[in-house]
Amino acid sequence: MAGREDGNRQQGTQAGTGPAWAAELLEHLRPAGRDVRRVVAWLSGTVGATVALQDAAGNLVAGNRLPLDEDLVADITAGRIASAAWESRERHLRLVRVEHPSHACVLAASRHAPFDRRTSDIVTHTAQVIELLLTVSESNAAGHRLRRATADLRLAILQLLMVEDTIAARRVAAGLWPGLLDAETASVYVVEADPAVRDRVAEECLDSTREDALVVRCPAMDGHVIVVGPREATGEDLRSLVRRHPDLFLGGSVRQSLARTATAYGQAVSALAVAHFRPDKTAVYAERTHPERLMDPAALRGWTSRVLRPLDTLPHHTRAELLATSRLGLEFTAVNAAKVLGVSRNTVRARMERVENLLGTDFADLTARAVVHLALNTQIGLPDAPGADDTEDPGLRLPDLLSGPAVRTWAQNLLGRLDTDTRNPRRTLRTWIAAGGNAEKAAQALGVHAQTVREHVRSAEPVLERQLLAAGTDLYEVVLAHLAVGDLDLPDFRRPA
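== PucR family transcriptional regulator ==
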């Protein structure tokens, strides 16, 4: 056996019989060919040997396992010698140290014929190529881990914003993106792409916004990228991106306080549905007359305080958690709300059931969902609003809020758009809402096919300019309109609403 001290390895040895094998070896450094196992297989075929690449612990990295002397392997991996050769009548063995960013390996080649200058050079140079490939692989892996950690951190910040914990969100963001969330308001955008290219689109969103926005791969929708943009220029940056790619769509919210990120997200998703029908593939949530804006603000705040008062007995963090979860759970499915919040769907359902029990109502009833949704959206502004206490008129109830002239006129005008349709979709819609959005139950009550119910509800969407088949703000406004004109009964609450 012969060994050579570390540091004396021959560098840049020229092949003895020609450069053909060197050209083949260098091909493995091309991006499409960077595979250590392929290099080891190539070496085996080129020198006619059994080849093994193993680490200091004896784990086989590539090739076929060989019986190697443990002490010799330890000397090589420890750096005491750089290479070794061993011969017997049946076998000739070459071992070469392979540097690795985290630990050294041994490249061993065993064959029946002796190693000449050419085959020895091939083994030595192959070890050098493997070193490069392992270094690149380790670097790529580290870069991937860093990108993954950064993406997880962005998602965590978004989830904090979704539950209105803006203080914690700012603290988390300050470490990597100082000043990102210093603004009090922001717009939320949703970029839709083919799921197969979403990662690339997310990177382009980061580049387009120059990392002045929070860019998150949506945990609920595989093709969506969520962008929270405190800067006014973010919208134009994203529109420019959409113009460059024919397969992208963009929906945006109006500016909201950071505490209303969940509301802004719902607006962006609603606008995204409209963007699919726009020539420029972009849309911003259209500000329109919402029923709560037609109600007396002080009376609405007082009513909201009374409706949500059962939650006031809870610890502050528990109350905030239940309110934020319910707000998202009423806008989206439990599964999607869970993904956005980073919890299980059972957790979302359990929290919403607790709110149901505290309020004494049933979220299977669409009218109850609409009323609680109204209270939750109003409640967001309560901490900074005057008069949100027991000084409000204790006798004012939901019927009083809905019976105001402005609200009734709005409701009559909205639902009146359906009266010109001879199929009477207004009756179908009313029955469908009363059945909790269940087309089969509504069909039984009307004596028609369930598909007919779905078609009537779907045909009402463009007329009312609201999405109805997906739970959310649009549907709840239509439910409130039915309550205001008396087409539906008010929901039951254990405490009078």
